[in-house]
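Table S7 (text form). Paired inputs.
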Amino acid sequence: MKRRRQQAILDLVRRDSLGSQAAILGRLRKQGFEVTQPTVSRDLEELGLVRTRDEKGRLRYAPPAEAGNGHGPERLHRVLAEYVVGLEPSGNLVVVRTPPGSANTVAQAIDQVGLKDVIGTIAGDDTILLVAKEGVSGMTVLRLVQSLMEA
């Protein structure tokens, strides 16, 4: 249920300019979710949604990658360039090596931006496993990560 609700929140904020938790709460209830304001607040935090201004200057919630606030592609480039010390493909996977204690930072930056060919990350202390979408090779994802590091 939580996963469905959080996906619904992402869909709502991508589609509409919703600038308050009350607006999101109302939309979720219209979709049949029995949810409270504290739950919406926790969901927004877990999803990393931020308040930003839309093209008309109104406040709205947005995924970090769309907000232009240092959580998107620019941050990903900085994090990859600073922390990635090795990449190795295998099938539809890429193993990413980082210094000890840095894997979660890198994986979170990747997850926040949402790389088009990556369906998920698994992070340990100094190693991340990137899982490519069906039909995408690990080498393709490796090249994507390398290009983002150099951008």
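Next pair, protein 2 of 2.
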Amino acid sequence: MRLGIDLDGVVANFTEGWVTRYNEDFGASLSPEDVTTWGAMTEIAHFADMEEFWSWAAASSRPTIFRHLPLYPGALDAIKRLSARHDIVIVTAKPNARADEDTRAWIADVGLPASEVHITEEKWRIDCDVYLDDAPHQLRELTLHRPDRVVCRFVRPWNQPYPGTRDVRDWDEFVSLVDQVWC
């Protein structure tokens, strides 16, 4: 099967990455646990809007925040196990070309066994049998455009249950779900 897997918030701990850099840059003391909504960058940090956030996150004097994100526990091991039986198709969205480059370098550095990498906001256009995402708007679009596919919501504080999705709380649960669908 083709497994369409998102990166940020699913494989890579984007929240920990941006919060750590924000604290270093601005002498703040935010915690990843403070992030409970999708747009938290403009709610708990000083950014006026997402454009300002992305400008900071991709400052040209250093790599973007996507270059050195920590992995979520169990993610790499689970994806390696799944790649023995299925095609791992990374389907992620990024704000600009520099973030695209840093994401591809990050994938290589961590040794993510991906047979394809697609960087697009229209994830539903990439044909997969099972999708795994955490973004509320992506879950909505995937269920709308791919109602005959299995769409999994990686449960995070910033998303809520969505009709037509299956909840996944950790990587072992996702592997089990894929095994059930495959049989």
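The mean pLDDT is 96.
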